[in-house]
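Researcher: We're reviewing a set of sequences before deciding which ones to prioritize for further study. For each one, I'd like a predicted 3D structure that I can look through quickly. This is 3-isopropylmalate dehydrogenase. If possible, include the structure in token form so it fits the rest of the review sheet.
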Amino acid sequence: MTLIAVLAGDGIGPEVTAEARRILEAVRPGLDYQEAPVGGAGYLASGHPLPEATLDLAKRSDAVLFGAIGDPRFEKLERALRPEAALLSLRSELGLFANIRPATIFPALASESTLKPEVVDGLDIVIVRELTGDVYFGEKGQRTNAAGLREGHDLMRYDESEIRRIATVGFEMAKRRKGKLCSVDKANVLETSQVWRDVVTSMAADYPDVTLTHMYVDNAAMQMVRAPTQFDVIVTGNLFGDILSDQASMCAGSIGMLPSASLRAWSGDTGMYEPIHGSAPDIAGQGKANPCAAILSAAMLVRHSLDDEASAQRIEAAVAAALDTGARTADLGGNLSTREMGDVVMRALV
Ligand code: NAD
Ligand code: IPM
Ligand code: MN
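Model: Here's the predicted structure for 3-isopropylmalate dehydrogenase, in token form for your review sheet.
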């Protein structure tokens, strides 16, 4: 039996995950689903954002379909009890160091981006974001310093092996695509980035088919809106990848369009699949959220954890066909509800 853990989470998480699950059930009948609370929902259910039973379920599942976490009610809790802690723990406990965030423009959306159509037309980027290191997981704390002032710190660090394994994913991905890998760092200022750049550079000789370039993250942010189609594969650290992928989402039309896969192996292993967006408290409970990012995450789930490329393409084609009919949620200027958008994608499945 193939077990899918459904961790819908908070805010719009349950709304968009319901649509993703519906599509998954239609495309791959017979999978076993188990739901468990996570994030604010986990805290409410059992006093911890990642209840033990939820982590256990994730560990023994073949794949995790994740919604979103985050709830303003819990922002004042100590960090370990906040919803976000659950997501970070899941990533590190499952060893999901490689976060694949594709940003592609569906043809129907090219003229609807906030950027000019000629700027985003043909957009097809994959951001390979390291997911279990960097400032996210370095030593952190707060204290009162000698001047009596409150002070906070978060250590940025990567060692060579962490850089090598994520860069390998970037090189391999580029090899299978247009052969262009752009490594994004801040090596002009940060020692962490200098090690990053040195390691990535030292690997280039093993990939003669890949053209490696380096870009500072500030320039990359600018290039992402100036000429985003120059990029093929971007490999970068946890924090820079987080920021650049939200930015890339707007090149694709909306943050509601970008899926992700968090992996420890390319295929046939437990992975976690989630939209890149958050719980969107401003629209939660209103049925306004765009479910496409969640649905496209389900496509990545079947592609990577179930080794089923045909079903993945079937889901992606259905999203494209749904958008071709003019179906849009509010983020893309339309008036369909989350459920109605899911219905259109469902009907577009062939
Ligand atoms: P967010 O991504 O939740 O929302 C940013 C903006 O985008 C909001 O205006 C929201 O309405 C809109 N938006 C997001 N997803 C959408 C969708 N599918 N359809 C239409 N509009 C959408 O980011 P935020 O507001 O900075 O964070 C809210 C909460 O979510 C915080 O608690 C944050 O920590 C959490 N968060 C969680 C994840 C995750 O679970 N992976 C990711 C990002 C943020
Ligand atoms: C994401 C989110 C998370 C991150 C937060 C909620 C921990 O922004 O998945 O992009 O920063 O990785
Ligand atoms: Mn993010």
